[in-house]
Amino acid sequence: MPEKRELRRELLSRRRQLESGELSGSGAALAAQALLLPELAEARTVAAYVSVGTEPGTAELLETLRLRGTLVLLPVLLPDDDLDWGPYTGPGSLAAVRRAGRMELAEPAGPRLGPDAVTEADVVLLPGLAVDGRGMRLGRGGGSYDRVLARLERAGARPALVVLLYDTEVVARVPAEAHDRPVHAVVTPTGVRRFARP
Fold this sequence. Notes:
The protein is of the alpha/beta class. Helix content is 28%, strand content 22%. The chain has five helices and eleven strands; from the N terminus they run H-H-H-E-H-E-E-E-E-E-E-E-H-E-E-E. The strands form three sheets. It has a seven-stranded mixed beta sheet. A two-stranded antiparallel sheet has the order 4-5. The model has no long low-confidence stretch (mean pLDDT 91).
């Protein structure tokens, strides 16, 4: 979809221009805001991700959830771009993985729980590039999280879907296609915005 490609280019360009202070400070501020969500406070299992590059930092949030006793599941990218899941048991449980033509990812080094493990999550934290007032999220375009959302729908699972972004990435409109699904909330370093839950 050309509109999506153009918006992705624009947003990625903006992220590359962020100052190092903004990048380093985003993780602590994002964690503080996210941890105010009752859904995260009550969650037994959270499917999350390890931020890469200029994404808002997730390390502090992952570690705080783990120390609270929450089971944190992290994705493992499969050759077909689907996601398997493994438990996060601390910073030492991550391994750097590089696949041809992709950036280096930090993935759980322990046991794999299978792609369906995400259906047990009470909250799914999603990466993204933007979200609009309807809760429509723009991802990077690989389709991995579209598969996750479709898997949740097929299983009848209804976790809280929360996207983690910078403040400037809450935009007026995200181009949407038939397979796109809205999220329930966006967390930025300065706050939380909720969307109507169907």
